[in-house]
Amino acid sequence: LFPVSNLCGKCRPSDTDLLQPSLNFLYWSLHQTTPxxxxxxxxxxxxxxxxxxxxxxxxxxxxxxxxxSRPAYLSSEDALLCSGWLLVASLLVYQHRYNTEVHQxxxxxxxxxxxxxxxxxxxxxxxxxxxMQFLRAVLRQNFSSLLVIVGQNTAPSASQPxxxxxxxxxxxxLAMQQVFSLVVSLQNxxxxxxxxxxxxxxxxxxxxxxxxYVKNQDVALHVASQPWxxxxxxxxxxxxxxxxxxxxxxxxxxxxVRYQSSNIISQKEISQIIQEAAEANIAELPEATSCALHxxxxxx
Length: 300
Prior knowledge:
Blueprint: H1 2-9, H2 16-31, H3 35-46, H4 49-61, H5 76-98, E1 106-109, H6 110-118, H7 125-140, E2 148-151, H8 166-171, H9 176-190, H10 195-215, H11 217-224, H12 228-237, H13 247-258, H14 267-279, H15 287-299
């Protein structure tokens, strides 16, 4: 781990052939190890100033991203961005968990992060998922981290959101306008019928509403009860038989039950889920479906 992290620190973002597998190795090392070794691995990586400076440059390359010549093609540059965002998201989570000393902070523009998700612009699904993993991590930490400073774009701009109400102040650094733009974008991404993307979107939506509930319960309940959610739900349910037992549908249903969005999910839908679960062979359900069904029933 030590020599690979040192090697990364000597690279430039353009060294994709070397950097991308190296960052993947660092990411894998964090996740596929024992808790004791994980804590040591986090300390090694966070003490490497050159590595963190390199990660800062990699993240900034995202804002200059341009669509590939082949839309469905994941270029080496795209793959590097994915690896960079996933590694930073993991470091963010584990630094907080182990309260690890930080030798170099990273700076991320929240406006650009939200724009990357809101205006998809043909971005590869894996890159969107990676950025959403980072967004979930900072939301869970209330945008307060020793490792990553998340701020709004300081450049003067007509679109720069300014705190215009008590709600904006309560949700800082997010603004209500940004919250609703993000929710609409997540809803739109859900209908792409991509499993990996759907899982990431629902997880991001869950974390966002949790964050809002802590900051301002009225705003959280308002977001969770948007009528468009019901149309989204019907769209997801039109995918085929036993559609209620899709993991992302179950997790969405759980979200609406948790925040008492009775205009989105009715007693009829709840009964139908329970009926489908009763008729299914529980032992043969995929693990993701079993976990989502357990959470739904517990919430009910």
